[in-house]
Amino acid sequence: MLIDTHAHLDFPEFGGDLDAVLQRAKEAGVGRIIAIGTTLKSSRSAIAFAEQHPEIYAVVGIHPNSVSEERGDFLPELQELAKHPKVVAIGETGLDYHHLPSERQDREISEAAFGAASTQSIELEIRDEAEKAAQAVAFEQHLELAAATGKNVVIHQRDSWVDTMNILRSYSADVRAVMHCFSGSLAQAREVVELGHFVSFTGIVTFKGADDVRQVAASVPIDRIMVETDAPYLAPVPYRGKRCEPAFVRETAAFIANIRGLTSESFSTQTTENAKRFFGLS
Ligand SMILES: [Zn+2]
Ligand SMILES: [Zn+2]
C-alpha cells in the first residue's frame, strides 16, 4: 500500500472527474491520500473530501503565497478547522520568496526608463520585505497551532531556505515537520533530518537533470522519507507535463526504490509506515 502524502484535490484541475481519479488511485494501490489546504476555503474543501471518502485525510493551513489574500485574520477559523477528527497535520505553511512582488514585476522594470525603474524598484523592495514579514508571522502561527494541538506540520519552502530553517529550528523541540516537495541539496536534507524532521519527494526525482535530488533520495535515512504527488503538478515520468494525480505516486516510489536498490514493495511498506506515523493514521 502507498500513501500520497500531498495532493491538492480541491484545485479546478480535478473539478470534472475526481471520482475517477480516486478510483485510479485505489487501483494503483494508493490506499490513503492526504488532501492539503492552501487557503481557508481550500482547507474546508480538504475536510469535506475527508468526510466523504474514508481514504482521504485533511491538512489545514494557508500557503505562504496565499497569506496576503487571507489578510491575517485566518487564525480563529484555522484553529476551529484543526479540531476536525480527520485533520492530521497543519499546513501547507512556510516561506516562498519565488513569487515576491519584485519577482512578479521584474520584466516590467527592465522595460521601464532608468529613473522610474529605480523608484519603482525601491517600492517593490519595501513590498517584498512586507510580504516576507507577513509570511514569517503566518508560518510561526501555524507552528504554534501545531504545537498546541500536538499535530505535525507540512512545510513549503521555495528560495527561502535559510529563513525557513531559522524559524523551524526554534520550534523543532515541539513539532515535527516534513519538507514537502524536497529538491534541495544533500547538506540541506541532512540539516532537516538532524533536527528530527522528514523529507518528501515528488515526481521531480524522475526528471531529467534532477541528479542532485536523486542523490538525496538515494541517501536520506529510510525512516525519514515520504512520497507525494503534489497533484495536479509535477507528474513523474512517464506522465511528465500531464495533469498529475494521486495514482502516479506509484511511479515516484518505484523510481526511488530502484535507485536505492530496493523492491518497490519494501520501499512502499517503509514509506507508508513513515507516513502513518507522521500523520497519526491507523
Ligand atoms: Zn508546496
Ligand atoms: Zn502543495
Tell me about this structure:
With 282 residues, the protein is an alpha/beta fold. It has one domain (2-96, 130-279): Metal-dependent hydrolases (TIM Barrel). It contains twelve helices and eight strands. The chain has an eight-stranded parallel beta sheet. Helix 9 (186-194) links the parallel strand 6 (177-179) and strand 7 (198-201). Helix 11 (249-259) packs across helix 12. It is globular, with a radius of gyration of 19 Å. The two termini are 13 Å apart. 45% of the residues are buried. The model has no long low-confidence stretch (mean pLDDT 95). The structure holds zinc ion (2 copies). One zinc ion is lined by residues 92, 156, 180-181.
What does the main sheet amount to? 8 strands, parallel
Count of strand segments: 8
In the CATH classification, which architecture applies? Alpha-Beta Barrel
How far apart the termini lie comes to 13 Å
Low-pLDDT parts are none
Strand proportion: 15-25%
As for the number of domains, it is 1
What is the level 1 CATH name? Alpha Beta
Order of helices and strands: EHEHEHHEHHHEHEHEHEHH
Name of the CATH superfamily: Metal-dependent hydrolases
Principal-axes geometry comes out as globular
Bound molecules: zinc ion
Strand adjacency order, main sheet: 1-2-3-4-5-6-7-8
Task: Indicate the CATH topology.
Answer: TIM Barrel
What is Rg? 19 Å
